[in-house]
Specification:
It contains seven helices and eight strands; from the N terminus they run E-E-H-E-H-E-E-H-H-H-H-E-H-E-E. It is an alpha/beta fold and 198 residues long. The two termini are 29 Å apart.
Amino acid sequence: MELIIIRHGLPLTVEKEDGTAADPELSPEGVQQAAKMADWMQSEKLDVLYCSPMKRALMTAEPLAKIKNLEMQIEPGVAEIDQHSSSYVPMEEIKEKHPEQWQQIIEDGVDKTFNAIGNVELFREKVVKTIETIIDANKGKRVAVVCHGGIINVWAAHILGIKNPLFFAPDYTSINRFMASSSGVHSLKSLNEAGHLR
């Protein structure tokens, strides 16, 4: 089967004072990215569409579901590590507007930054288990999963045997392709396809 993992579009910045989950919606640019991604995928065969329950993923999956006439299957196991965080600031905004904070993230490393939000190892285990379940349920099919950069990193690192489960920054609405054979062999087909954004 072919597994296509798609990152959500650019979200809004949300910082909540009451401690509730930020769960941002897409920014206007993110909505445009999602539409471009759906148009790009229009000619591709898709059998099943899964989606994270977080707003930015749901809004990204909507145009794809519509253009492919597929019902979204909500999968909590591909929610991002920051699912319960009261703050969401896109990395690009931190880099541009808060250079000191960005420098600290660079010095600390992504693992330490993510561990401040949630346990990276537990997150990795959850993601791998969830995606293996999706693969087992869809033998011989072409499946898309709209989710988050952390999910893409964890699964790609798992397939490539990379120790650090957070090793690259996927573009918003990037398309990442993996193959999974019935014998249990998994492989990487492509990472970070973003031709639709050019």
